[in-house]
Each structure stands twice: as structure tokens, then as C-alpha cells.
């Protein structure tokens, strides 16, 4: 598209901005519009994803057909199938008459499914069938109906992550993602932020007869430095709030009101890193306590083996390394004698006593001194894990020993060493 065509498109759909990523998204929408390919629009909430399906519909051969926008996240799970595919009279409580669904109503047109990631799994299977064959069944009916609908979907979540967690069908994802369109976040469109603010403030002043708002250079810098987690929607709210509270009714003396950073700062929320628009964390993603302690056990065991192997390779080429290799290759067979569990210094391999180690900071230590420090740290790690295991099982040593992966006899011995 030429710059003139692109600007004409933006004017028609009231799109503000000159960011290259935004322009690319608009160009893809126009290019794919004449086809019937399914489009998946990805972007954070508030970036203006709803403009893309309108452009696709207007530039397609279906422009004379109906256009429907459905927010899948706003429809209760129990009624989503009825909304999309319709229902027969008496199919459920409250179904007093037959009702056509959006797929039937939009036959020959375009259907925009927003927040597609919120669609229940059962409804996803039905949607997949419609996309593949155009067939669907009303709720409470056994008659197969057909519909010719162009589907454009949008999401503000990572659908691949949802697929990996079993929350979204993989086959449906690839069916929807025939043509992906990425809408950039507002913080990625630095040069458009002030332009959008001026547009929103100007529209507000014209609508309510208020003084026009302008920003000082320091206020513009503040505007661009904020990350705008709510994107364009949040920026519009701020612009309108500032216009309403800081401007005055138009008069011969006051037609424009300049806002500096100090005033603007009162209307911009303080930056909270916990509100960054990243993938949501679920308790299902957390590492359990037992897994964490198992990881700690292996880390300390491997740490000592690496230190020992380093001395073997760098300090004394003829040292017996075969025994170490066996322990490293089969840690489950050496679990009771793992170095992180031992409380006796005598059980730590005393390789090359008196040999000097050259440390990275320029200092020197003997092997004996280094091993003594390593042993103390490993002793503390082992003691902490033993106490945690006993606390977890309220002093039951048999269960604690099983948790730690050692015998009950070994646990008694180590408790004795800790208490001594």
C-alpha cells in the first residue's frame, strides 16, 4: 500500500499512529481480506484489535453480508453454545422459542470472535467442526446445518501456552492461526503516544466545549516514559480525565490550557512492576516443596563432586577418579553416602592433603582448608533439610527418612552428629 492509501484507511477507521508495526498489521489485513483464510489477531488488551476484523470485512467479497462481533469471555459457559450455534424450543429451561445462533445469522458474512482463549473446551470442538466443514448443530437438535462464515478471532493471551497446559485445543489453534496479525502494545509505539493523547483531548474539548489541553515538553516526556499497561484504552481515559479536571469552559481569555509534568503526574498511576503484562502465573506452574528440596540435594551433591573433580584434573593427574565417576553416574546408588548428608569430616575425601589451590581472586589456600569450608557448608545444608523433613512429618523419623531418601538408621546417625 502507498502512504496515501494507508492514511486513507486510517482516516476511514479512525486509527491514529504511524508506527511501522501498526502499518504492517493494517497492510496484512487488507492483503488477506479478499480470501477466506481464518485470521488470528494477537495483542494485549486495549491495543485496538477490534479494528482489524472490520477492515477485513469491508475489503472482502463479503462486505455486503452481515458482520457480528462476539466477546467469548463475556458469555457464560452454559450459554455459549446457544449463542454461537442457536437452540431449539424447549431444549433447556428458558428456551421458549427457537433461536438462531451467530453462525447461522452471519451466513455469507464475517464473524469476529474476540477473547477466543476463553472458549470452553467442549465449545472449541464444535467451533473446529464449523471451521473445517461449515457444519453445526443447534442445541437440542440432531439436524446438521451448514453456514458459510468467515471467522476472524482475537486473543490477548498466549494460546500456545494455553495449548501446553491443556486449556486450548492444538488443532483449533493451528486452524485459527492461518494468518496471524500482531498488534503492537502502546509502549512499543513511542512516537504515537503524544499523537493519540492530542487526538483524545481534542475530541473531548470539542464535545464538551472545554479548553483544549496541550502538554509541555516535560509532560510529553513523562507521557512517553510510562509503560501504559492498559494501552490505548488507558491513555484515552487519562486524556479525557485531564481535559475534564484541568481545563475550563472556553472564553475569550482562555482557549488553551498547558499541562506540565507535575500536573500530569497526578493522573498517571505509579508504575507497579507486578502489573507488567506478562504471562499469568498459575499455582499449577509452581515447583512443589519436595521437588525443590530434591533439586537442592542434587545441587549440593554435584557441587562437591565438581570441586573434587577439579582437583583431580588440575591438581594431580594420577588421582583415583574411577570411584567419583561411579557416584556421579549412579547417584541413586550412593544416596546414603552422598557428601551433602555427611556430618563427619572424616567421610569427605581427603585428596592431596596440604596441596595449594590458586583461587580466582589471587589468594591461595590448601586443599585441607578448602575442603573444611566446603564440608561446613554441606553440613549446614544437610542439617537444614533434615530439620525441614522432621517438621513436615511432625517428628516421624521413618517418614522423614523416606522423604530424604536415606535409611532410618542413617537418619539417627546424622541427628546424633547434628546434636553433638
UniProtKB/TrEMBL annotation:
Extract the Gene3D superfamilies matched here.
Answer: 1.10.8.60, Homeodomain-like (1.10.10.60), P-loop containing nucleotide triphosphate hydrolases (3.40.50.300)
MF GO annotations: ATP binding; sequence-specific DNA binding
Where the record annotates domain Sigma-54 factor interaction, the positions are: 15-244
Q: Which GO terms describe its biological process?
A: regulation of DNA-templated transcription
Q: Does the keyword Nucleotide-binding apply?
A: yes
Q: Which Pfam families match?
A: AAA_lid_14, HTH_8, Sigma54_activat
Keyword annotations for this protein? ATP-binding, DNA-binding, Nucleotide-binding, Transcription, Transcription regulation
Under the heading SUPFAM superfamilies, the entry gives: Homeodomain-like, P-loop containing nucleoside triphosphate hydrolases
Identification of the protein by name: Sigma-54-dependent Fis family transcriptional regulator
Amino acid at each position: 500500500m502507498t502512504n496515501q492509501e494507508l492514511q486513507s484507511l486510517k482516516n476511514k477507521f479512525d486509527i491514529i499512529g504511524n508506527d511501522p508495526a501498526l502499518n504492517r498489521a493494517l497492510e496484512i489485513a487488507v492483503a488477506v481480506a479478499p480470501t477466506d483464510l481464518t485470521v488470528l489477531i494477537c495483542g494485549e488488551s486495549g491495543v485496538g484489535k477490534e479494528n482489524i476484523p472490520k477492515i477485513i470485512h469491508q475489503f472482502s467479497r463479503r462486505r455486503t453480508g452481515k458482520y457480528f462481533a462476539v466477546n467469548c469471555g463475556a458469555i457464560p459457559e452454559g450459554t455459549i453454545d446457544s449463542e454461537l450455534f442457536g437452540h431449539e424450543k424447549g431444549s433447556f429451561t428458558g428456551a421458549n422459542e427457537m433461536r438462531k445462533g451467530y453462525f447461522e445469522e452471519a451466513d455469507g458474512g464475517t464473524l469476529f470472535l474476540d477473547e477466543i482463549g476463553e472458549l470452553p473446551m467442549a465449545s472449541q470442538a464444535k467451533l473446529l467442526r464449523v471451521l473445517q466443514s461449515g457444519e453445526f448443530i443447534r442445541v437440542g437438535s440432531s439436524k446438521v446445518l451448514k453456514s458459510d462464515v468467515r471467522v476472524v478471532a482475537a486473543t490477548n493471551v498466549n494460546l500456545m501456552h494455553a495449548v501446553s497446559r491443556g486449556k486450548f485445543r492444538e488443532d483449533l489453534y493451528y486452524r485459527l492461526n492461518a494468518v496471524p496479525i500482531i498488534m503492537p502494545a502502546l509502549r512499543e509505539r513511542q512516537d504515537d503516544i503524544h499523537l493519540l493523547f492530542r487526538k483524545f483531548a481534542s475530541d473531548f474539548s470539542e464535545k464538551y466545549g472545554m479548553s483544549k489541553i496541550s502538554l509541555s515538553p516535560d509532560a510529553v516526556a513523562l507521557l512517553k516514559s510510562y509503560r501504559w499497561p492498559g494501552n490505548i484504552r488507558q491513555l484515552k481515559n487519562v486524556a479525557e480525565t485531564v481535559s475534564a479536571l484541568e481545563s475550563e469552559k472556553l472564553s475569550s481569555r482562555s482557549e488553551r490550557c498547558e499541562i506540565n509534568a507535575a500536573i500530569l503526574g497526578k493522573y498517571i498511576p505509579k508504575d507497579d512492576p507486578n502489573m507488567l503484562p506478562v504471562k499469568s502465573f498459575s499455582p499449577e506452574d509452581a515447583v512443589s516443596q519436595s521437588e525443590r528440596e530434591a533439586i537442592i540435594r542434587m545441587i549440593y551433591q554435584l557441587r562437591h563432586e565438581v570441586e573434587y573433580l577439579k582437583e583431580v584434573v588440575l591438581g594431580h593427574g594420577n588421582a583415583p577418579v574411577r570411584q567419583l565417576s561411579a557416584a556421579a553416574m549412579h547417584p541413586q546408588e550412593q544416596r546414603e553416602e552422598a557428601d551433602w548428608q555427611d556430618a563427619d569430616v572424616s567421610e569427605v575425601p581427603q585428596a592431596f592433603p596440604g596441596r595449594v589451590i590458586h583461587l580466582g581472586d589471587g589468594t591461595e589456600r590448601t586443599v585441607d582448608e578448602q575442603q573444611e569450608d566446603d564440608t561446613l557448608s554441606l553440613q549446614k545444608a544437610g542439617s537444614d533439610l533434615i530439620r525441614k523433613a522432621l517438621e513436615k512429618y511432625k517428628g516421624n523419623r521413618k517418614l522423614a527418612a523416606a522423604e530424604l531418601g536415606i535409611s532410618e538408621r542413617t537418619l539417627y546417625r546424622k541427628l546424633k552428629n547434628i546434636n553433638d
